[in-house]
Specification:
8-stranded mixed beta sheet; elongated; binds S-adenosylmethionine
Length: 379
């Protein structure tokens, strides 16, 4: 195999993780009201294989969707017929071809009152639904897929991991709502972190830091177990990202610890104190604090402000004013890139630098007729 093909194949291998229907259902049920009358685009999804397509086809009417679009990419050297077909449409399955499916109506052909898998088999026989070939290879960045993106309201998929940053950048550029599968390793990458800071992305409801299982192609040597004849691999760092509202990000963390200089030492290279877990964030420290990146799953922008991150990339990416505000000392370096937090001469893990928002003072209004306290058990 030529070197370039080998690199592509290696990259593609990282990308061929197929999401399970149960995991999709567990997450997406929380966003139902946001889907009414919306065009959903699954732009890394072969409709014959993707459980995202399947989920939305099955829930088309209960979600009140206006349209469901899925595009299939044919550029992967290992994508194709390794996976059993979800819909089992045997005759006209357009394998290894880039195509799109546009669903505008899901009828209950059985007349049994429920839209089930059998109905989905008839989807593309409906005049209102179209399966057509794409001109290009179905790359989510191609002009024809971008045109579909423009038409869409919400993008929902598990994009290729190797292109995740580009994928998110594109959603951001076209200002689209999204619920997508990602990886906690990308929480602090430049593009994603900036969106966290500006409250334009947040973690979803399920599976943060718990690990998830995915179907992988038969050609994978490493896998966790076999399920229904298919290889299943575990990814410990998977997580959901969205810009739709997520309740936990409106909840205030209970802060019960008090600041002491001994328990919360300052970094050598930042004017910020170290906090080892989000649970230990002190309730009375007004300055900048460095917390583990898992904090982002608890982040409530009304309670905290994200200043920046302390990581090997900080120096290259942070605006000058922020480095000044943080009193960053570039002369103190410990391994890695310039910017990793250094504590007593040793580098610590990447930290998110945050500050508590000051609670707004609520003017006290004395009640005109105070309610007397009832004495218990005295009636
Ligand atoms: C992580 S898999 C997930 C597939 C499906 N969304 C799911 O969750 O089951 C990513 C998919 O994106 C496809 N892909 C890779 N590069 C792509 C690109 N540039 N444009 C669109 N899809 C791509 C891969 O072939 C793969 O099927």
């Amino acid at each position: 195999m030529a070197r370039e093909d080998l690199t592509n194949a290696k990259r593609a291998k990282k990308d061929e993780f197929y999401t399970m229907l149960d995991d999709i259902a567990l997450e997406l049920k929380h966003y139902k009201p946001y889907f009414k009358d919306k065009v959903v685009f699954c732009n890394c999804d072969d409709p014959y294989e993707s459980n995202f397509f399947k989920y939305f086809a099955l829930n088309f009417n209960s979600f009140g969707l206006k349209k469901l679009i899925a595009t299939c990419f044919n550029g992967s050297p290992i994508a194709g017929d390794e996976l059993p077909l979800v819909f089992d449409i045997t005759d006209e399955e357009p394998k290894k071809t880039a195509y799109k499916v546009e669903i505008s109506e899901v009828k209950d052909y059985n007349g049994d009152g429920a839209v089930n898998l059998t109905d989905v088999q008839y989807l593309i026989q409906n005049d209102k639904n179209v399966l057509s070939l794409l001109k290009g290879n179905g790359d989510f960045r191609s002009p024809e897929c971008i045109e579909l993106l423009k038409e869409a309201d919400i993008v929902v998929t598990n994009p290729p991991f190797s292109l995740f940053r580009e994928f998110v950048g594109m959603l951001d550029k076209y200002n689209k709502d999204f619920v997508i599968m990602g990886n906690t390793n990308t929480l602090v990458c430049k593009e994603v972190f900036k969106m966290f800071k500006e409250d334009r992305i947040r973690t979803g409801y399920t599976h943060f830091n718990t690990g998830m299982f995915f179907y992988v192609p038969d050609t994978f040597d490493k896998y966790h177990h076999i399920e229904d004849g298919r290889k299943v691999a575990r990814v410990s760092t998977s997580c959901w990202y969205t810009n739709l509202p997520v309740e936990k990000h409106n909840e205030f963390l209970d802060l019960y610890k008090h600041y002491t200089p001994e328990e919360y030492p300052k970094y050598d290279n930042y004017d910020a104190v170290n906090v080892d877990t989000y649970r230990d964030i002190p309730c009375d420290y007004d300055g900048v604090m460095g917390v583990p990146i898992t904090f982002l799953d608890k982040y409530n922008p009304n309670q905290f402000e994200i200043i920046w991150q302390a990581s090997g990339n900080t120096y290259a990416n942070a605006p000058k004013e922020i480095l000044e505000e943080l009193k960053f000392n570039p002369n103190i370096k410990y391994g890695g890139g310039l910017g990793a937090p250094v504590l007593n001469g040793k580098a610590t893990y990447t930290r998110v630098l945050i500050r508590r928002r000051q609670p707004k003072a609520v003017p006290y209004e004395a009640s005109e007729s105070p309610v007397p306290m009832a004495a218990e058990g005295n009636e």
